[in-house]
Amino acid sequence: MSAVCHFPTLEDAVQTAQQVIQYGIPIARIEMLNKDQMGISINYSKLTDIEAVPTLFFEFHGSESSNNENIKIVEEISKDNKGSSFKWAKDLEERNKLWRARWDVYYSVKALINNGRVYSTDVCVPISKITECVNFAEEQAKKFGVRAPMVGHLGDGNFHVVLPFDPAKKEMYKQIRAFNDSLIKKALELNGTITGEHGVGLHKKEYLLDEHPDNIPVMKSIKRTMDPNNIMNPGKIFDLN
After folding, report:
1. What's the helix, strand, coil split of the chain in %, to 5?
2. What is the SS3 assignment for 168?
3. Whether 9 and 102 share a structural domain
4. 72 and 56, same structural domain?
5. Which residues span the domain enclosing 23?
């Protein structure tokens, strides 16, 4: 069973997800879209009966009796945090319509700029710190003057910021990188990690040195042993020289 719940503020939505997890409710998925991303998704996917406000998407797996029990608790927690009544979908077709806003996030943001590109970043923090980190991300987006639609897998403390930009405008890209620097530093301050899903790749190598300075020499040693000619993804994760 899937449901959507709207909230007046992003903090209310994130606080709800945090409390559901801390309460120990067995829930399959909790996805968050901030106000900006909801508006973008509604326009792109031609959605109806869904509001452009901070939103949580819930999915419950299990027997009908266990689902009903867990749903009742989650609804109470949501109401305590000013959440709306749940919009429900029980069959596959209804669930697909309900989740369309979430699935089309990347394409909806990319479509904002003609021939535009998307810089997508993610961080992961302890559940108890997720509200603080998401609030910080929204504040920093305003500070750096970037558009920062967000989507979060709040069940594991992971959330993504999906930033559209025009590749011809170099200054815009610099602002996005500055925003990313700020967000990652905050995640590390909160005992989080620089990436929950996207991986380190090329763009987060410098941050890995901040998160695991003692481990990098060991990783380099293993790399030199297994790949003495440095031909397997050279320069990914860290530089050998």
Report:
1. 50, 15, 35
2. coil
3. yes
4. yes
5. 2-107
92 and 10 both lie in a single domain:
yes
Rounded Cα distance between 79 and 137, Å, is 25
The predicted-structure confidence for 155-204, as pLDDT tens digits, reads as follows 788 999 999 999 999 999 999 999 999 999 999 999 999 999 999 988 89
d(CA 10, CA 52): 12
Domain end point (choices 107, 122, 147): 107
For residues 1 and 67, the answer to whether their CB atoms sit within 8 Å is: yes
Reported as a single tens digit per residue, the pLDDT across 20-33 is 998 899 888 899 99
Are residues 207 and 183 part of one domain? no
Q: What is the mean pLDDT of the chain?
A: 91
Q: Are the CB atoms for 37 and 87 separated by under 8 Å?
A: no
Q: How confident is the model at residue 95 (pLDDT cuts 50, 70, 90)?
A: confident
- What is the spatial distance between Cα 181 and Cα 54, in angstroms, rounded to a whole number? 25
